[in-house]
From TrEMBL:
Stated name of the protein: Potassium channel
Keywords assigned: ANK repeat, Ion channel, Ion transport, Membrane, Potassium, Potassium channel, Potassium transport, Repeat, Transmembrane, Transmembrane helix, Transport, Voltage-gated channel
Subunit-structure text: The potassium channel is composed of a homo- or heterotetrameric complex of pore-forming subunits.
Coiled coil regions, renumbered to chain: none
Domain notes: The segment S4 is probably the voltage-sensor and is characterized by a series of positively charged amino acids. The pore-forming region H5 is enclosed by the transmembrane segments S5 and S6 in the Shaker-type (1P/6TM) and contains the GYGD signature motif which seems to be involved in potassium selectivity.
């Protein structure tokens, strides 16, 4: 075996076009290939004898007395049909469901026994001889009509001719319609004569033909007239009666003839409508068969122009023939149905199946509904390669029915089957999700119905449903213990999960930063974590509080966002609100248990004091920061204010309880710093604060 697409297609083409009686390669089970040269020749022989049998059966029924000896001798052809019955037990067939060639003797026999065996056997019996041997009991003559079951061979022949683009379609259809019309009138003519010839000889004048007079010629003793004259006379009146031209119709002269003529004319109206309808369809040129022929003609011209290989030609033709004969796909049937209705149909047909796919285990119903609506149904024949090793993949496939195999192709072209795929399995997902070339070849073993989804559609859905996206990657990663291929990709999958989480956090933070509540709700509703941090350790709540978006802050709190999370810079959401001056947001946070969580309150307050940010300082103090917090030098914010001569800042600090006698590591107090500074307003404030403090202590 070689690792190319052509080698497998060549194998399939060879199987489809065997032209001999062969043996099963799996044993000594003898069978006949339905497309072999021997069986095709035999089918042509049976077709020719079926034409004779279909013509001779009504004739034998109606003109059972006085048939030419040649026709009676030719009745021995029943032996040929009996031989065909025996042969049918050895003819392999293609399963309608799997399209696989079945050559098991038991399966062939069961199929034939269920369908055509009984009628074929009954049609081979010599009913005319049985009729005579049983004393001419009339009931046995009616069994002759069973032989019309062979007309299916004629219908099969016309169906094959209609699909053959080498034969003019209009000519084929006209021949078929003429055949139908002539055969119906031939059968009617034989029945008309049967109604007359079964009357007693004494009542010949009370039949349509016995009472007939054409010019001077009378048919009073019609049984004695030449066979061909009787047949042509019956045929003439049958055609004229069917045409209902009003002249020359058969005139019933007894009750039996009246009943049959009523039935016959009623049938003629239906037959006429059928013939007219078919002729109209030929003129309009809108039949399914014509579209198939036109498509096949265009494909052959295209293949000839581009000099495509024989194997590829066979594959294309087989695909087109499959779609013509089965018309399986949902899209080909529902193409005129509105998209919304088609989506509901998809959910009805595929929802339960998608839920059983291992890759989608644990995903939300909303996500699965989106997946279902993007699925497209396709069919593939045995031997076809769907995904080739090393190729870029733009689709994933879910197996709805059938069997496939995964094959690894070595550098020397050797093939190794590594796994079999069955219903509910999925393939192409590794290449699509990990964005890598297809790691192995996927080949069809039997007719498969697959649900295809485009990579772009899957990616867009995964971007909306982040939680389900992580679940899918996790499901893919869980297979590493049993699947060596997935284990080899473990690092790639882990990286994708981490990348996805980072992108999700950025998306949530971006929506919070820009005040996009609708987008933020959408992200969190599909599984985004409101507490996920970005590269700076900031959450969506940090972003919203810094921008003052009260509605977003309220929504995040409702979704259990951590009100006391700290970023890499030591900032909490409350601190962000305080620094930005968003008092309502800060109050909302405090109501929900937020605290400033300053790791080095002293240093931070000293920095704010040095920058004279009185508003921020006041808000910090209002939210519980200790005004006597010290930095690394044991200096309080009041030390800094006094040293810088910031009497307004000092006034605010003293108002919130700052101690003017607090000592730093050098033993200096804010009062000492104020004296060195020399600012009289500052010194006055500090002296007053010390006096007030001493008074309160006493």
């Amino acid at each position: 075996m070689h690792g190319s697409v052509g080698s497998r297609l060549a194998l399939f083409s060879k199987e489809m076009n065997l032209a001999m009686i062969t043996k099963d390669c799996y044993g000594a089970n003898f069978f006949i290939h339905p497309n072999g040269r021997f069986y095709r020749c035999w089918e042509n022989v049976i077709f020719l004898w079926s034409i004779y049998s279909a013509f001779f059966t009504p004739l034998e029924f109606g003109f059972f007395e006085g048939l030419p000896e040649l026709m009676e001798v030719l009745d021995c052809i029943q032996v040929v049909f009996f031989a065909d019955v025996i042969m049918q037990f050895f003819v392999a067939y293609r399963d309608d469901r799997t399209y696989k060639l079945l050559h098991d003797r038991r399966s062939i026999a069961l199929r034939y026994a269920k369908n055509n065996l009984l009628l074929d056997l009954l049609s081979c019996l010599p009913w005319d001889a049985i009729y005579k041997a049983t004393g001419k009991r009339e009931i046995f003559r009616y069994f002759l009509w069973i032989r019309l079951h062979r007309a299916r061979n004629i219908l099969k022949f016309f169906k094959k001719m209609e699909k053959d683009i080498r034969i003019n379609y209009l000519f084929t259809r006209i021949v078929k319609l003429i055949t139908v019309e002539l055969y119906c009138t031939h059968t009617a003519a034989c029945i008309f004569y049967y109604l007359a010839t079964t009357m007693p000889s004494s009542q010949e004048g009370y039949t349509w033909i016995g009472s007939l007079k054409l010019g001077d010629y009378q048919y009073m003793h019609f049984r004695e007239i030449d066979f061909w004259r009787r047949y042509i006379t019956s045929m003439y009146f049958a055609i004229v009666t069917m045409a209902t031209v009003g002249y020359g119709d058969i005139h019933a002269v007894n009750v039996r003839e009246m009943i049959f003529i009523m039935i016959y004319i009623s049938f003629d109206m239906i037959l006429g409508a059928y013939l007219i309808g078919n002729m109209t369809a030929l003129i309009v040129k809108g039949s399914k068969t014509e579209r198939f022929r036109d498509k096949m003609t265009e494909l052959i011209k295209y293949m000839n122009k581009n000099k495509l290989g024989r194997d590829l030609r066979s594959q294309i033709k087989d695909h087109l023939l499959l779609h013509y004969e089965s018309n399986y796909t949902r899209d080909s049937i529902l193409e005129d149905i509105p998209v919304a209705v088609r989506s509901k149909i998809s959910q009805t047909l595929y929802s339960e199946m998608v839920k059983k796919v291992p890759l989608f285990k644990g995903c939300s119903d909303e996500f699965l509904n989106q997946i279902v609506m993007k699925l497209n149904e396709e069919f593939f024949l045995p031997g076809e390669v769907i995904l080739e090793q090393g190729s870029a993949v733009d689709q994933i496939y879910i197996i709805s029915h059938g069997h496939l195999e995964e094959v690894v192709i070595g550098e020397d072209g050797s093939e190794e089957s590594i796994a079999e795929l069955a219903t509910y399995d999925i393939f192409g997902e590794v290449a699509v999700l990990c964005n890598i070339p297809q790691p192995y070849t996927v080949r069809v073993c039997e007719l498969c119905r697959l649900l295809r989804m485009e990579k772009q559609a899957l990616t867009s859905i995964l971007q909306l449903y982040f939680k389900d996206s992580r679940q899918i990657l996790s499901n893919l990663l869980k297979g590493k213990e049993t699947d060596l291929r997935i284990k080899q990709l473990e690092s790639d999958i882990t990286y994708l999960i981490a990348k996805q989480e980072a992108e999700l956090a950025l998306g949530v933070n971006s929506a919070a930063f820009h005040g996009d509540l609708y987008h933020l709700k959408g992200l969190i509703n599909v599984g985004a974590d409101p507490n996920k941090t970005d590269y700076d350790g900031r959450t969506a709540l940090h972003m919203a509080t810094s921008r003052g978006y009260e509605d977003i802050v309220r929504f995040l709190i409702q979704r259990k966002a951590n009100v006391n999370s700290i970023d890499k810079f030591g900032n909490s959401p409350l601190l962000e609100a305080v620094k930005a001056g968003h008092d309502r947001v800060a109050a909302l946070l405090v109501e929900n248990g937020a605290i400033l969580n300053l790791e080095d309150a002293g240093s931070y307050l000293c920095k704010v004091t040095a920058n004279s940010k009185i508003d921020i300082l006041r808000r910090l103090l209002e939210n519980g920061v200790d005004p006597n917090s010290k930095n690394y030098d044991q200096r309080t914010p009041l030390h800094v204010a006094a040293a810088e001569g910031l009497h307004l800042v000092a006034s605010v600090l003293i108002g919130y309880g700052a101690d003017v006698l607090s000592e730093d590591r050098w033993g200096n107090t804010p009062l000492d710093e104020g004296r060195r500074c020399g600012s009289k307003p500052l010194l006055k404030i500090l002296e007053q604060a010390r006096a007030d403090g001493m008074r309160d202590s006493h």
